[in-house]
Structures are given as structure tokens and as C-alpha cells.
Specification:
two-stranded antiparallel ribbon; mainly alpha; 232 residues
Length: 232
């Protein structure tokens, strides 16, 4: 025999609720077998789930659209920051810039390798350290680095930072929308369980196939076990 199982997805939950709510038989006074209390719980539950699911879909879609752009901007900013720091270190190695000047950039005066720029936070940290360090060194009378200039580094860093912060806000909005969904689902499942129990109880005396057919008509979802013959 097939077994009943509550929906696992929000779309399936919405379909199951809508099937019941769109069935006029649940509202007729004469043959109604679902309590008004349950019906009155079902409609708000459907509306809340539908709204929350749509808000999550919109937020998640916006987040996905921004991901590719953010990755590209991060790549560009990383390239400019790393190239600038490489030129800085080569200038120190050639004796064109004093080793002690590296401290202005947040680097050890014996630094010979680039700091880790793989994460967004480390890129922003070292990027702005490079910008402030270059400004301080030039203010002390040092010759500016031109390839790339610190203004180009700063521009790409700012573009990435603004987009990155916007993307983080989108991620926070998506997480909040998902949290709302998680809070709504138990109530929806409780309503569905109540509905299905009343539906199955109403048709419990019908022959097996008739009972399954009627229950499905009211949105109850049945599954067959593996290798189970649906005609049995």
C-alpha cells in the first residue's frame, strides 16, 4: 500500500494547501467534513508561506545575479593591489625605496613575499594599507610608484568595496528571508497534517482505490515504496 508523506518543498506545500482551499466541497455546510477552525488556519498559512517563498526567491535571485560581478571586481582589485605591492618590493630590492618604508604599508621591513589577498577581507585590509602607505611615503618626499599608480589601485579597490558591501546586504536579506521560511514551515506542516487526518478519516470506509482517489483529490500526497506495484 502507498504511504502518506508531508511535502518536503515549499512549492509542494503550497500546492497541497491550494488543492484543499480551491475545492468548493470544503466550504459547503451540508457535506463539509473539515472543521472551520482548520480551514481558517489553512488560508493564512498559505498566504504567509506564499509571501515568504516569493521574498526568498526574489532575494536569492538578486544575490545570484550579483555574485559574478563581485567575483570579477574582486579579481581586478586583487590584480592591481598585488601588482602595486610587487613593484614596491622590487623598488626596495633595487634600493630605490628604503626598506624601512615598508612599515608604512603594514609590511615588515624584510618582507619579500606578498601577503595573502585571496579573501575579500584580506584584500581590503592590504589594499587600503597600500593606499595609506603610499600617501604617507610620498608625503615624506618619496617618489610615487607609477605602474600602477596608487590612484588606479584605490579606484579599483573602492569599486570592489562598494559592490562587496552591496552583495553582503543581499546575502543578509536572503538569509533573513530563509529564516522566515524556516519559521513558517512547521505551522504549515501542522495545518496540512490536521487537514489530511480529517480528509482520510472522512473516506476511511471507502474501498482502497476509491479512498486513495478521493484523498488525492483533496491534496493528500501518497508515495509508493520501491518496487511496489501501483496496481496492487
Amino acid at each position: 500500500m502507498p504511504y502518506r508523506r508531508l511535502p518536503k518543498t515549499d512549492a509542494a506545500r503550497l500546492r497541497a494547501l491550494k488543492t484543499v482551499l480551491d475545492n468548493n466541497e470544503v466550504y459547503t455546510a451540508r457535506n463539509r467534513f473539515i472543521s472551520w477552525d482548520t480551514i481558517n488556519r489553512a488560508q493564512p498559512a498559505y498566504d504567509r508561506l506564499l509571501t515568504a517563498a516569493e521574498q526568498y526567491r526574489v532575494s536569492y535571485s538578486a544575490q545570484l545575479r550579483g555574485t559574478g560581478k563581485t567575483d570579477k571586481l574582486q579579481h581586478n582589485a586583487t590584480m592591481y593591489v598585488s601588482h602595486f605591492l610587487q613593484v614596491l618590493m622590487m623598488s626596495v630590492e633595487r634600493g630605490e625605496i628604503r626598506k624601512s618604508a615598508l612599515k608604512l604599508y603594514g609590511l615588515d621591513d624584510d618582507a619579500t613575499t606578498l601577503p595573502n589577498l585571496k579573501s575579500a577581507s584580506s584584500l581590503l585590509k592590504w589594499g587600503y594599507s597600500a593606499v595609506e602607505g603610499e600617501k604617507a611615503r610620498v608625503k615624506e618626499g618619496g617618489r610615487p610608484i607609477y605602474n600602477p599608480t596608487i590612484s588606479m589601485v584605490s579606484t579599483h579597490l573602492e569599486i570592489f568595496k562598494n559592490n562587496y558591501e552591496q552583495q553582503r546586504r543581499l546575502q543578509e536579506r536572503t538569509a533573513k528571508a530563509l529564516d522566515s521560511l524556516k519559521q513558517i514551515r512547521p505551522e504549515v506542516d501542522s495545518v496540512l497534517l490536521d487537514l489530511w487526518n480529517q480528509i482520510e478519516d472522512n473516506f476511511k470506509d471507502e474501498p482502497s482505490e476509491k479512498r486513495l482517489e478521493e484523498c488525492r483529490r483533496f491534496g493528500v500526497i501518497y508515495y509508493y515504496r520501491k518496487n511496489e506495484n501501483k496496481q496492487e
